[in-house]
Amino acid sequence: MGTLGFWRLAQADPDWIAAVDPDGTEHRAGDLLARSNQLVHGLRELGLRPGDGFSALVPNGADGLVFYLAALQAGWYYTPINWHLTGPEIAYIVADSEAKAFLVHPRHAVEGARGAEALAPERRFALPGGDVPGFRPIGDLIDGRPETTPPDRTAGATMHYTSGTTGKPKGVRRQLSGLDPDDSAELMTFLLGLFGITPGQPNAHLVTSPNYHTAVTQFGGTALHMGHTIVFTDKWDAEEMLRLCERYRITNSHMVPTHFKRLLALPEETRHAYDLSSLKWMIHAAAPCPVPVKWAMFEWWGDCVYEYYAATEGGGTLATPEGWKSHPGTVGSAWPISELLIVDDAGEPVPTGTAGTIYMKMLGATFEYKGDPAKTQASRLKDYFTVGDIGYLDEDGFLFLCDRKADMIISGGANIYPAEIENELMVHPKVADVAVFGIPDEEWGEQIKAVVEPAEGVEPGPDLVDELLASLEGRLARMKWPKTIDFIEEMPREPNGKLLKRKLRAPYWEGHDRAI
Hints:
Domain AMP-dependent synthetase/ligase: 7-361
Region (Disordered): 137-174
Shape: globular
Strand content: 15-25%
Pfam family, one: AMP-binding_C
InterPro entries: AMP-bd_C, AMP-bd_C_sf, AMP-binding_CS, AMP-dep_synth/lig_dom, ANL_N_sf
Domain AMP-binding enzyme C-terminal: 420-498
């Protein structure tokens, strides 16, 4: 151990540009180091001890990075909160995470103030840039505190809340390792090492999604610990992404298939107006990627597109460009430190090529859903866990996803996977986005409904319905065709690309006893 980890790197080279805010402000590593040290001293004075936690409601940028770096060297849990939530939802996470301090950016002052009620006023802090009533300025925590390395450092962790399709979100809490923070950070870099990512400059990582998501924090934070420059975006835009890739010579990023679809929809001349020769490891996950979309990305960007499948809880697979091209549609094979198990409803392993529930485990990783031993137990099978996805392994050990168990449609007794139908519709040039789910059907139990967001300038209506259905001819069994197609102006997605299917599905199930 001894060459990686942000704090070591920043001491060795304080002038390296470690972060770039969405407005273009550049931050030296030495400045981020000083601010994170001051925050540790300030929060310790407030009474925080190893094992305690704090939460924050902040946009993408260096501020959140400072909070993350403070927690990771003081043995605290840091919980970044989704800024799309309402006051009561924020209050639930602040209370449930047992936050001993809550930091809010003025941009999120209204809901942030509503969400802070569980916490004593002296534990609430507002970032500069506007008034947040009932909050102390963050200067009270950091001004005048030493910029020197705090004594008794010990590794902390992030505790993210999973969005969950049902019930309240749950915090995924890992046991603290007790390691030296730099050694712990160096161990974290194993994840990016799996993709072949190398440390040091001139590497730059582009953050394309909100930092309150596990993977976004994980990949961005780990790139920082490898000495990369982290470039933040405020709101994702296809052409802006290409501009940033050229401007900052981006080498790696973390994306979702919706991003690919929107990039490919740009006019040909726009797509080729930017120099993307720096791209080396453009990693995607979070949703199945239609095979033709991925081939199109390889044609445009070359062999720099990597895919993985994993969960906040730990464990996963990796598809390298070579692995995917020899097994199109796969999400990859198990990481060296991870194992996969596919089982039937009785928990028994199924044969190769047979779909079942995907269970995973990761060497040395244990977690619990905070305050919910029943949910933790329900997701486990021996020392494996599941998030309820369905898939199968081929004879080479490559995993193929079918769908989430909760999204499966049971029509006339047959199991139908919406993801398969979505992938076929998604490749149509007139479709910007699509969701497929089951709605009540007196005769069949459920019928297949598609909701489509038409591409820009495309007129929704019966003609488009006919055209979309006709495009499925010979590509999808008729029993899998949507019975009806509705149109929507904009698909409800979280900014990390996760589709909020329950929002679309709910109106169709009103007054029925079974809502999936």
